[in-house]
């Protein structure tokens, strides 16, 4: 059983544990019934008659996929579930077949020695607003009509947009009417939409209560399964309109396609035609391309007879000459005369609510905390036990543009470009080190990078036919080397069982899966189907008899170096995963002191330090490789 100790995870023997794993899986965002592929619109809006049983894999394939991941040393699973998977049929109606399935998969993972934390996943609120997560009835409860989102640009959804669906277009839904409204209601409905109620209950309490109760259905099912160490609170939360200073302007660095301002979104949703800016994403950032008329048919995003929430609350109105205008410019910025702060005023109370509810049913569960992507964490140090910082980090240029450059990078934490190979490579390690520092400062907790990965469809997917993933290997090695340098734990995004070269991860055109049925002829063999395994399957310390000081792996030379200060109270050995994929002809060990034993069955090196020597270094290299040491 893992526990937290300051900035580290510790096992029952008191050893420091560094976790390496994967998100399982990418297609858990979409249902199995009806066909969950984003390109299939059939039955899309019939959101109640769905099933997520079989995500991330059919039960009869579970052992195959879990065995493969374990052989790769990826024994931490960030296991995706969605609110929709649990409660799609309606408020308070839980899918017991899905919960039965989930429990059976977790028991198998427990038998196979995995460590799991459950991720109640969402992206831009819901499948019906361009992502995944919340059930469709949540939108209906707010008075929205999801069948009209395409005409009003309240959301750009793959099913209604059609192919081709531009890379990363889905994430621009964060600032569109449907998603931004739902997040504002979820986190701040009491302050910003007090007039919106459901059966006499305020919309904020209604939504949060159902979300927490759905998560507790999972907690109650999985309590007592020892591999399940905890629960994420909310994947990549968004502030919606909360804190938006200028409702007539866009915010953020990411702009792509048609981008209405909040005022234009309100107007479009209420049936007004608007001239909207058109943007493209380029290497140096977003670029304005022009303007385009939208909603000439005067469709409304609201149900018949339901007024626009924000017009009803006096945020905006239409002038006598038919032009929308803002009436309360500071509506989402100040509440009762006080400047609002999303992280402090809205996100933190919600996170504490989730933590309290989970701990009521499972007092030992760890609580994995996320702030908004790349934004500061809420300060919760001392407010709750068992916290873990779980931020996400991606190399932004390859992720957004599907190509990379050794000379140009992006620091997502400080919103600045990085120029030159040294700055690009150094920038990744510096950002992850800062994320770890934030976890210590804000939560007093260890850090797991909850998502980190690279797209495999770089440059139009030219690697699919050649099988040459050297470019992806280089990028993944860059990211994972930063994980090692920062001494964080991490879960790669992602492993998708249904991945194909044509449809990627089966969700919004993404293709980040480290495994695909289209790679290798016999995917039953352990490494068949794997992509960029040379970077992924790497040696790392599983458990350290003290505090790690330095960790690195040179992928080219296949040399791993670990330095740590021992803890005299720990009597169990340091254990290091040493994969045969990196060392098919065996490996040799150099040490400053101590003794070692090779466990060839588990592919683990067990090292015992010498008493009286405070700091210890172990170097692992290929048997035929000369490191210069004797």
Main attributes?
disordered C terminus, 8-stranded parallel sheet, 7-stranded antiparallel sheet, 2 domains, TIM Barrel, 16 helices, alpha+beta, 630 residues, Immunoglobulin-like
Textual characterization of the structure:
This protein is an alpha+beta fold and 630 residues long. It has 2 domains: 3-141 and 178-242 and 340-536, Glycosidases (TIM Barrel, Alpha-Beta Barrel); 550-622, Golgi alpha-mannosidase II (Immunoglobulin-like, Sandwich), CATH 2.60.40. Helix content is 27%, strand content 23%. It has 16 helices and 30 strands. Strands 18-17-9-6-5-4-22-21 form an 8-stranded parallel sheet. It has a 7-stranded antiparallel sheet with strand order 1-2-3-23-26-29-28, with no helix packed on it. Strands 24-25-30-27 form a 4-stranded antiparallel sheet. A hairpin with a 5-residue loop joins strand 13 (316-318) and strand 14 (324-326). Helix 7 packs across helix 8 (203-222). The protein is globular. Mean pLDDT is 94; it is low at 625-630.
């Amino acid at each position: 059983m893992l526990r937290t100790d300051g900035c580290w995870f510790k096992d029952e023997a008191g050893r420091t544990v560094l976790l390496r794993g994967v998100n399982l899986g990418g297609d858990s965002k979409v249902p199995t019934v009806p066909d969950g592929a984003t390109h299939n619109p059939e039955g899309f809006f019939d959101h109640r008659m769905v099933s997520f049983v079989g995500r991330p894999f059919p039960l009869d394939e579970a052992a195959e996929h879990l065995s493969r991941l374990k052989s790769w040393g990826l024994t931490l699973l960030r296991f995706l579930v969605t609110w929709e998977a649990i409660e799609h049929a309606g408020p308070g109606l839980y899918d017991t077949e899905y919960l039965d399935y989930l429990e059976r998969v977790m028991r198998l993972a427990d038998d196979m020695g995995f460590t799991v934390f459950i991720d109640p996943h969402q992206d831009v609120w819901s499948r019906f607003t361009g992502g995944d997560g919340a059930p469709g009835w949540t939108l209906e409860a707010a008075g929205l009509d999801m069948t009209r989102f395409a005409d009003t640009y309240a959301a750009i959804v793959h099913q209604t947009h059609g192919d081709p669906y531009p890379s990363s277009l889905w994430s621009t839904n964060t600032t569109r009417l449907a998603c931004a409204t739902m997040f504002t209601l979820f986190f701040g409905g009491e302050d910003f939409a007090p007039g919106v109620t459901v059966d006499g209950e305020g919309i904020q309490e209604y939504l949060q209560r159902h979300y927490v109760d759905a998560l507790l259905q999972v907690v109650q099912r999985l309590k007592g399964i020892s591999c399940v160490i905890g629960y994420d609170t909310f994947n990549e939360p968004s502030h919606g309109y909360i804190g938006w200073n200028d409702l007539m302007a866009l915010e953020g660095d990411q702009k792509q396609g048609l981008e209405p301002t909040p005022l234009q979104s309100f107007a479009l949703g209420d049936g007004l035609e608007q001239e909207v800016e058109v943007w493209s994403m380029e290497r140096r950032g977003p670029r304005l391309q022009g303007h385009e008329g939208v909603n000439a048919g005067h469709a409304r995003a609201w149900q018949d007879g339901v007024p626009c929430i924000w017009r009803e609350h006096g945020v905006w109105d239409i002038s006598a000459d038919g032009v929308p205008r803002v009436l309360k410019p500071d509506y989402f910025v100040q509440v009762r005369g006080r400047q609002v702060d999303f992280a402090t005023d809205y996100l933190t109370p919600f996170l504490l609510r989730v933590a309290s509810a989970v701990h009521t049913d499972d007092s030992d569960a760890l609580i994995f905390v996320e702030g908004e992507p790349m934004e500061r964490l809420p300060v919760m140090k001392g407010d709750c036990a068992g916290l873990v910082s779980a931020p996400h980090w991606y190399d932004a240029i390859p992720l957004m543009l599907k190509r990379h450059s050794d000379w140009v990078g992006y620091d997502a934490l400080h919103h600045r470009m990085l120029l030159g190979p040294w700055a690009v490579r150094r920038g990744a390690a510096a950002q992850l080190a800062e994320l770890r520092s934030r976890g210590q400062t804000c939560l007093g907790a260890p850090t797991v990078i909850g998502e980190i990965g690279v797209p495999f469809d770089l440059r139009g997917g030219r690697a699919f036919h050649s099988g040459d993933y050297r470019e992806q290997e280089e990028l993944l090695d860059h990211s994972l080397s930063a994980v090692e340098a920062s001494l964080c734990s991490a879960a790669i995004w992602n492993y998708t069982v249904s991945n194909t070269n044509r449809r990627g991860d089966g969700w919004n055109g993404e293709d980040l899966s480290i495994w695909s049925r289209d790679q290798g002829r016999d995917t039953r063999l352990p490494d068949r189907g794997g992509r960029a395994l040379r970077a992924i399957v790497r040696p790392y310390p599983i458990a350290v008899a003290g505090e790690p000081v330095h960790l690195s792996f040179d992928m080219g030379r296949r040399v791993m170096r670990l330095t740590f200060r021992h803890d005299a109270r720990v009597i169990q050995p340091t254990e290091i995963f040493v994969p045969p994929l990196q060392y098919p002809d065996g490996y040799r060990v150099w040490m400053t002191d101590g003794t070692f034993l090779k466990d060839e069955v588990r592919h683990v090196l067990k090292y015992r330090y010498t008493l009286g020597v405070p700091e210890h270094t172990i170097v692992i290299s290929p048997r035929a490789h000369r490191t210069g040491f004797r």
